[in-house]
């Protein structure tokens, strides 16, 4: 960039010949631009995004295993402190988790069966409502067509119509009819894929817990020969461990709170099988933003099906959204700011990016990933600008 020439200011001590030379030959400041480094950085970023998309199944399974392993590791450590071997303690913790899931599903099986038994009736009511809406739309279209025909007839009588155009032939391609067998085939494939992934996560968590701090020791050795690098690596791993455990504790607290508040609201409204719906609301609350919307839509539909009343359905929707807003605004935001010290804009942008890249799994894992990125950037000097950007 070339700066404008500057004449000698009044009162300056510069000799006249220097001022004249500065006036005749303006100063030039050259700012070096590393175009090659910028281009390589852009290409590396694009390649990283494509690699994350290509390795999505493996990375999602790995991240889920790491999150659950960090969450359950304090229990295994506590069992070690009371003289229980790590192998036995890991088996006990995993068995307790599996038993809790089975017991929860068994306890809610009655309500779940009643909900499934009501599905045909609910589908019939929904079909009737949609058919009524369709008939109303058809009546409105008929009225509009009758009005248009009247106007066209009046225009023809007034001889104001344009000259006739050549008739065109339109080809209508009919969509293939819905086939229940295809839907069940796709659904069964999805269920099998989910069961397979859950099994892989289960064994991955087991082996992570069994290994203990083995990987931590290996990463410290690989950090370098200097004591400073080893200390930085230990600090990063401890901070990641602490942040993930606090995040998972926050998720546990907020989901339990959402489930309890939803159960109380549904019992007050009088919705049947309130316990099962409350558990579903707590599980869906794991998905940021979208989970609350899905919960509100499901509860509104279930309430409308039971009471056949739109105000009752809207009441359930309002109660669900109110609970989600209360927990998200006062509990989740407070706890997230306390342990992560991140601004909400960075969290929301991270959720947008990971949702675009990985879909629903990105919504689930977006916040833990950005928390890990912030922890690493706080301890690496070259990444301090990123830490400042993500911080409060």
Number of strands: 0
Sheet with the most strands? none
Topology order in helix (H) and strand (E) letters: HHHHHHHHHHHHHHH
Percentage of residues in DSSP E strands: under 5%
Q: In whole angstroms, how far apart are the ends?
A: 35 Å
Radius of gyration: 32 Å
Helix content: over 70%
Structural class: mainly alpha
Uncertain runs are: 1-11
Shape: globular
User: What is the residue-averaged pLDDT?
Assistant: 75
Number of helices: 15
Word description of this protein:
Among the domains are: about 55-115 and about 195-210, no CATH class; about 225-390. By secondary structure, the protein is mostly helical. Helix content is about 80%, strand content about 0%. The protein has 15 helices and no strands. The longest helix is centred in the middle third of the chain and has 43 residues, at about 225-270. It is globular, with a radius of gyration of 32 Å.
